[in-house]
Amino acid sequence: MGRILAIDYGTRRTGIAVSDPLRIIAGALATVETRQLEKFLADYFSKNEVDTIVLGKPVQMNGSPSETMRYVEPLAARLRRSYPDKEVVLYDERFTSVLAHRTMIDSGMGRMARRDKAVVDRISAAIILQSYMESIAMRR
After folding, report:
1. Most exposed of 8, 35, 71, 117 (fewest Cβ within 10 Å)?
2. Are residues 50 and 3 in contact, defined by beta-carbon separation less than 8 angstroms?
3. CA 138 – CA 69 distance, rounded (Å)
4. How far is CA 62 from CA 55, 65, 85, 92, 93, in A?
């Protein structure tokens, strides 16, 4: 069984998180410039077994797609074409940035460190991944 990789897509930076091999724990992996995302993924997939890619689905509070969705859907299509052996899932990412900031505060991170958007992106990806893994565990 391969890992699950989560992507918190942003137009400039993208946060990436990955599960442990047993799919129990989500961990922040990296923040990459979005234009380098697909190259980063190709390199990561060549070295690590990943079965599922979870893309944060950007939706507004009322459930309608947000502006970023116009970038996420084509990315999902490209990933499905490039990696037909991997399941690509869109998963609701509402509140992940808020939760990431709350996590940073609760962990005692200083104000200046909390301003690092790359850290927020990685933590948001980990939150998306952990939430997704909990949702599939509940379905069993």
Report:
1. 35
2. yes
3. 27
4. 19, 9, 33, 12, 13
The crossing angle, in degrees rounded to 10, of helices 96-106 and 117-139 is 110
Where do the DSSP E strands lie in the chain?
A: 3-8, 13-19, 26-33, 50-57, 87-92
Joined together, the tokens standing for residue 138 give 């509940």
Task: Tell me how long the chain is.
Answer: 140
Q: Let me know: does 121 contact 8? Beta carbons within 8 Å.
A: yes
**Tokens representing residue 132 in the block:** 């997704």
**Are 125 and 93 spatial neighbours (Cβ–Cβ below 8 Å)?**
no
Full pLDDT tens readout for the chain, 140 residues = 899 999 999 999 999 999 999 999 999 999 999 999 999 999 999 999 999 999 998 877 677 777 888 999 999 999 999 999 999 999 987 656 655 556 655 666 666 655 657 777 888 899 899 889 988 877 66
User: What's the first-to-final CA gap in the chain, in angstroms?
Assistant: 16
By the 10 Å C-beta count (0-12 exposed, 13-18 middle, 19+ buried), 41 is classed as: buried
Encoded tokens for 85:
């052996």
